[in-house]
Amino acid sequence: MRRPRFIAEQARHAKGPIGRLIAFIMARETWSQNVRAIDALGIGQSDDVLDVGCGPGRSISALASMAPKGHVVGVDPSELMAEIAVRRNRRLVKARRAEVVVASTASLPFEDNTFDKALCVHVVYFWNDLGAAFTEISRVLKPGARFALVFRTSADQQAVKAFPAEVYRFPSLSEVIAPLEAAGFAIQRKDDLCCEPQTTPVLLVATKRQIRPE
């Protein structure tokens, strides 16, 4: 069944009472894919980790437990999602082991070469410019840093039919890989690409090159 546009809009930018309900649902529905991304990153004890589009922030505590000597930052464009994420992780935030920032992926408020690892789960559908987003993520990652990206592609016809095209844009695999490589990443893993038709979210694991290509 096709999801109503107003529900899809809440997934893109949650607000109000409905947004709180969507946050609760998202925390449960997307958790398994967040676990895939986290496992693929190989988090070290001292890693500084960025969760791009952190939503309700369920991943933040898991990341912090793996990086007890590091720092975890969640970023999301929704003030409501950031509020929920801070409340969920209030002890970590109070201890300054984690923080949540309201910002868009196209303009991340961090210095160059800040993070050792980054993940982004089910967010690319809402970006107007994949290249600009990947370039910005690359900028804030250290050379050699690992980036895990989970998303459904246009080959997943069930997803394409279930979500309104005015809100969700499901890219092809090549439409993601090309700008990712152009932003300075080398693809290390391409998981779940064997199934036809494609019904499993793709996991890409990439590493920021030591020197960005011209």
Could you walk me through the main structural features you see in this protein, from its secondary elements to its overall organization?
- This protein has about 210 residues and is α/β, with parallel strands linked by helices.
- It has a single domain (about 5-210), classed as Vaccinia Virus protein VP39 (Rossmann fold, 3-Layer(aba) Sandwich).
- It contains nine helices and seven strands.
- The chain has helices spanning about 5-10, 15-30, 30-40, 60-65, 80-90, 90-95, 130-140, 155-160, 175-180, and strands spanning about 50, 70-75, 100, 115-120, 140-150, 185-190, 200-210.
- The chain has a seven-stranded mixed sheet with strand order 3-2-1-4-5-7-6, sandwiched between helices.
- Strand 1 (about 50), helix 4 (about 60-65) and strand 2 (about 70-75) form a beta-alpha-beta unit.
- Helix 3 (about 30-40) runs parallel beside helix 4.
- The longest helix has 14 residues, at about 15-30.
- The protein is globular, with a radius of gyration of 16 Å.
- The mean pLDDT is about 90.
